[in-house]
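Record LysR substrate binding domain-containing protein, 221 aa.
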Amino acid sequence: MNGFAPDALRVGYVPGVIVSKWGRVWTERFPDTPLELIAVPQADQESALREGGVDMCFVRLPVERDGMHAIPLYRESPVVVIPKDHPIALFEEVGLADLADERMQDAADIDALADTVALVAAVGGAAVMPHSLARLHHRRDLTFRHVSDAPDTQIALAWLVDNDTETVQEFVGIVRGRTARSSRSPAARPEAAAPQRKSKQPAPKKKPTAARTRTPRRRGR
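=>
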């Protein structure tokens, strides 16, 4: 398929996803195959895959599954971002009912959350967003609290069915925690240590037995 790089693996990721740990493992196991980690706006996560901008992408569900594999990885809990001196900051967790009278800032556009957070800091109010994005846009004058009954979000690893190559499957294995020994590629497997042969130790020499000296018997006269 046009657009896919045969000699490199291009992996996209939407805001809030941290991919460095998987990148390190890939570099250790496949040093001869470059890995390109590409930041992808949330709005472009599906088109980046279908148009060949990336080979795989960490996406925030939902995405259109037609012709696409998607492995759910983990869920993101929702939080509300508020000024540090806000009364809600006194609680560890709140519900949506606790926010009913708050001035809620629009946080629907994931790619514009930096502006939303700045707006909360400037004029007050509150904004509900995934925990990972609240941490990404954290400011010292703001804090966040978990929202117990707001819908969570889910991160998945997606790639096209037509691009289900061995290289793609190796990356899937790394994300799923597959060890180097269980890798499909022989290049990623550590060389088995050759069994050490026990060297034959020479048999210990027997200590020579000292010759006994016989004292001649004296003959009687």
